Each structure stands twice: as structure tokens, then as C-alpha cells.
What does this fold into?
Amino acid sequence: MLNLSNQRVDEELFTHYPLKTLRLLPQPGSGRRLGRWMLGLLLIGLAVMFLPWQQNINGEGGVTALSPQDRPQTIQNAIAGRIERWAVEEGQFVKKGDTLLVISEIKDDYFDPNLPQRLGEQLGAKQGSRTATDTKISALDAQTTALQTGLQVKLAAARNKVRQSAFKVVSDSADLIAVRKNYQIALDRLDRYEQGHKDGLFSLTDLESRRLKVQEDYAKVIAQEAKLNVARQELLNAQLDLNTIRADYLEKLAKTLSDRSSAVSYRAEATGEIAKLQNKISSVDIRRGLYIVRAPQTGYVVRSFKAGIGEMIKEGESIATLQPDNPAIAVELYIRAMDVPLIQPGRMVRLQFDGWPAIQFSGWPTVAVGTFGGEVAVIDAVSSVNGKYRLLIKPNVQPGDQFWPPQLRVGSGVYGWVMLDNVPVWYELWRQLNGFPPSLQQEPNEEKKK
It folds into this structure.
């Protein structure tokens, strides 16, 4: 106001004509109430700072099966072939042993429809050959025994003949000595008769008779010497016959044993060929059973990698994917390497599945809504391709918790939190601001890891 007039109107204005704007202005007591509210919020914030906060390690992953046999598998054919007929459709439920695919042969070695019969005939012929060889070996064994027996008999007879010849040589030698002795006596008598004839004691007739006797004894000596020489020659011949018999029989035995060895070798070769034929027959029978590709276990045909009729497939080539029925559901989470030492099997885990909305307070799992409980079952010993370590989580439903949804499918996305120890909220904020890892009250138990 300029106060140009002595008449004051401000008192009347505020007293008799109050303005609406002035009435709406805050009174001095509102500031005090605001201060009380801020002080209360500050006290509540300080109290919250000392509340327990459960530390956790988060990770992402997907739904899988705990057992390898329950995970999706590719069906492969054992032999090469040409597709003749598909017996299933994608997404169809099949039981173990059901026909999935029928293929036909593409190798010319197995084109003959009567191949098993042909191989059976070859096997019979080879078995007959082996039987004949066994008979030949038995005959050669008998021949060897006969030759050994004949050798012993012949050698005994030859040795007897040698001994007889030796005895004859001894006998003829004795006779020669006697004949020579008689001849010497006859010579001595002839000398006495000649002396007596000179002295007139014997007549000429007696002397001539004695001379004739000497000639006869000398003839006997010559005959006996010839007989002894014949006996000695017979002894040499007998010894030669003995050696000849031994050599002949040894040659026959060697030939028989050689024939037997050849027969044994042929029998071994025939046995090997029989084994090969039997193996081939079994392989042909098994191969013909592989023309039908069957389901290895009960499940769903997810996807086929081959299409159409007449398409060629190689040995061991993937044909389709099969998802086993009712797998033991588990979750695989991938965490950083720096967090692996803080986790051991048995740690509790909270899980949030894709498609199931949830409100998660990671530090206060008891107030979370829509999450599911789990337990660390396996920690990989090596890192995965992405440099993170994989955790296998199995269901662990606590009292008051809900079971895992039965609609879960292998491959669905999952977000999880591995629960650690409790710390104050202020410590957790301080740790997060400084980028420190979570802390543990004690070192993880190594026995649980194993």
C-alpha cells in the first residue's frame, strides 16, 4: 500500500471481506506435519537397512531332463538305404519299437533276395569239406600208427638177421681155425712121412696118401675161408638192410606227417571260412532287420530331417528327433565363473519359468509370488561354450510351496536365483555398489560337492 490517505481500509478488508485465495493458503502447521512424515520415512528406511537380506546368485537357462536318456535324441539309421515309406507324422506319439521309417537296400552285395540260402549252401559245402578233411586226418593218423608198428617189426627182424649173420661169422671163423689147425697137422705128418720114407719106414703109397690128405685139408681151408667171407658179406648186407629199412620207413612217416599237416592246415582254413560265412549269414539277417527304423523309446516325433520318398540316406545319418515321454524335468542354469565357488549341491533355488508370471523379491524369497522351488543337484566341472558354468536344478517342493507346472516343456526359458546366506540390507547395498561377490559364513563343504 502507498499510505497516501489517512483512512485505513486494510483492517476492514481482511476482517469483513476475507478472500478465497487467502483461505486456501497452507497454514504454518502443515510444514510440521511434513517434517514428521519425512522423519518417519527416514526411521523406516534405517530400520529396513538392518532387515535380513538373503544373498543370491542369478542365472538364466532352460528346462531340460535330469537323466540323459530323457533328453531329446536324434534317431539314426545303422545302414545306408533309400526311403520307401514313412510310418509316422511329426508330433505323433510313438511307443518303443514302433515303425518310424522303412528303407530299401542300395548296396549291390545284398541285392540277391536268396542271399541267405546261397550263403547257407556255401556253408554246407565248406562244412562237408571240413568233415572230409577230418576223415583224412584220422586215416593219416592210422597210417602213421601202422608205419610206426611196421617199422618196429621190420627193425626187429633186421636186427635178428644181423645177429644171425654175426653168429654165422663167428661160427665160420671157428671152423676156419679148426680147418687150418687140421691142415697144419697134416703138413707136420707129411714131413714125418717123408722123413720116414727116406729112412725106409713108410712106403711110397703111404707117403702119397699123406700128400693127398694134405691137399684135401688145404682145400677145406680154402673152402672155409670162402665161407667166412660169404658170412661176413651177409653180415654187411644185413646191416645195410637194417639202415635201409629205417630210412624207408622214416621217409614214409615223414610223408604221412607232411600230408597230415597239410590236412590240418586245410581244416583250419576251412574252419576260418566257415566262421566267416556264419558271420556273414548273421550280418545279412541282422541287416535285413535294419530295413525298418524303429523308435528306441516311447515319446513324440518332434522333427524329421529327411523328407519324401526315394531319398538316399547314409549310414549313421540323423533321420528325426524324438522327445521321450514323461521325462524327469530339471533346469539348467548358467552362472558366472566367479560365483561357482559359492555354490555347492543342496543349495536352494527359486525359479521363474517363461509363461508363468511371477513377482520375485530375490532377497526375500518368502514374499515372492509365482516362483517355484528347486535344489542344486549337479555343478559342471568344466565351463560351457559361453564361459559360464552349468547348474542342474532338480525339483524341491517345500511346505507351502507349489509343484512345478506339468505343462513345462524341454527347452523352455528359466530365470533362477541360487539362495545363499542372510546379511543386512545395508551390507548388500554396500556390496552391490562396490561390485564385491556375495559372502559366505563358512567354506562350502567339499563332500557335498562330490
